[in-house]
Amino acid sequence: MTETRPAQSREFDFRVVNQAVINEYRATGGKLEKTLAGSRLLLLTTVGETTGRPHTTPLGYVPDESDAADGSADAAGSSADAAGGSGEADRSEGSGSRRLVVYASNMAAGEHPQWYRNLLAQPKVTVEVDTDRFDAQASTATGAQRERLYEALVEGMPGIRSHQEQTTREIPVVILAPLR
């Protein structure tokens, strides 16, 4: 990994780490070997809420296996802010046709991550999974749907369970529904 300081350190710069991950991800078609090797990640591009410029963030994710059985919009497919799992089976099915779920943890900080604030202002986002790139509509899961998707996230990425316990805000669970 490019940055070796602990994430809690004041000298740790997530922007440097994220850019290294983004560069490797795009150069290898999502097959990370140097930064976050073995992680199941996607790249989420949002539009800055004040700048209007695109911002890309690497995020861990899980597919939404329900196919919108809970009545949520867009039964096209399936989709989390931490890395985990290999995801090989999911990837072979064509992630661009399935909903994906991401977790707006911000490393359990007291405020939402900027990428989440951006998508609240402009919910149309761009998602990259391996070599597949597609536009998606982002929405925040609520109620029983949030609970079900949160459990799927924790099952796929067990390390994120402690994030909710470390903050008083409810960490958003975000659904990325492909627009094509």
Automatic annotation (TrEMBL):
Catalytic activity: oxidized coenzyme F420-(gamma-L-Glu)(n) + a quinol + H(+) = reduced coenzyme F420-(gamma-L-Glu)(n) + a quinone
Biased composition (Low complexity): 69-83
TM ranges: none
Classification via Pfam families: F420H2_quin_red
GO molecular function: coenzyme F420 binding; oxidoreductase activity
Domain of life: Bacteria
InterPro entries linked: F420H2_quin_Rdtase, Split_barrel_FMN-bd
Region of interest called Disordered, as start-end residue ranges on this chain: 48-97
Gene Ontology cellular-component annotations: plasma membrane
Family: Belongs to the F420H(2)-dependent quinone reductase family.
Name of the protein this chain belongs to: Deazaflavin-dependent oxidoreductase, nitroreductase family
Organism of provenance: Parafrankia irregularis
